[in-house]
Request: fold
Amino acid sequence: MTRFGGPEVMVYGDLPEPTPGKGEVLVDVKASSINPVDWKVRGGMMKFITGRGLPKPLGSDFSGVVRALGPGVTGFAPGDRVYGTVLAMLGKPGAHAERVVARAKDTRRMPEGWTFEQGAALPVAALTAIAGLRSCGDLAGKTVLVNGATGGVGHMALQIAKAKGARVVAVCSARNAELARSLGADEVLDYNEVDVTAPGRTWDVFFDAFGQAGFSRAARALAASGVYVTTLPRPDSVLRSALGGVLGGKRVRLANMRSKPEDYAELERLIQGGVKVVLETFPLERAAEAFAVCEGGKVRGKVVLTVP
Ligand SMILES: NC(=O)c1ccc[n+]([C@@H]2O[C@H](COP(=O)([O-])OP(=O)(O)OC[C@H]3O[C@@H](n4cnc5c(N)ncnc54)[C@H](OP(=O)(O)O)[C@@H]3O)[C@@H](O)[C@H]2O)c1
Reply:
């Protein structure tokens, strides 16, 4: 991004070579993926934390090969195949580039047999789904509604809830109904046809991957001790989450990704157990086009940028 704005501020060009500082690794990026936070950063919605240093690459998720280590880094060597995240949402240069500097503690060796596309697609979306669902306790036999069930976070949440023994109701547009079924949904609802927050049917867990329902509305369709989990902390959800222990009853959990080894280990076990990442790829130089797909609401799973 060369300035704050729409897709037109994205330019494919050259920047100076990055160098790793203390505790950091320099990675030859093979693939990176797009998350909604990227266009929120680009649009300037997060200027207060990203700062104004421009131009810089966008992108939080990466996979690639370690090129060099900064001072004090142990546990990695040049040539290692790795994946992980960079703090682009805090203003660091992002991973939609040929090289990226990442904190060693946010970098992980990729399991045998994974493709670079897979590794780049997973961290932010899958770790958010894992953190959100873990906060709901035992899911075996529960009915979990996943709102936005075929997007980046949602298609992970759908499959992980199934893997944990839940009955999953997927909410998406009609064009993605078949995809949701193929990922294991027991029932699929079209958000253009059904208001899943209307009183009537109830859900033990309302996993709001889309993030726009809000606790006040979702609570109308929650079981008495149900949980509303959201990827977007709106004021009513944050307040209820803070007061939950005092008020009892229906609860709110905020699904925030964590970059902890135990979360990555759980992610790798889930993939080993059959959870799949759905993705579409674009070469890095067509990043603006790839963003347009995501921002136009036409995403199925993840959009991944590849570096030749
Ligand atoms: N807190 C965190 O750590 C964290 C991490 C990751 C993401 N997030 C946030 O979570 C949100 C989702 O992220 P994402 O990567 O999953 O986005 P995404 O890949 O763009 O997916 C969004 C999904 O929302 C669905 N959708 C659109 N309109 C809807 C409606 N009216 N009702 C229900 N679903 C609807 C879309 O389905 P159709 O294509 O079928 O229309 C799509 O599958 C974003 O706001 C993101 O910033 C937060």
Observations:
- The chain has ten helices and 13 strands.
- The mean pLDDT is 95.
- Residues 60 and 275 are 22 Å apart (CA to CA).
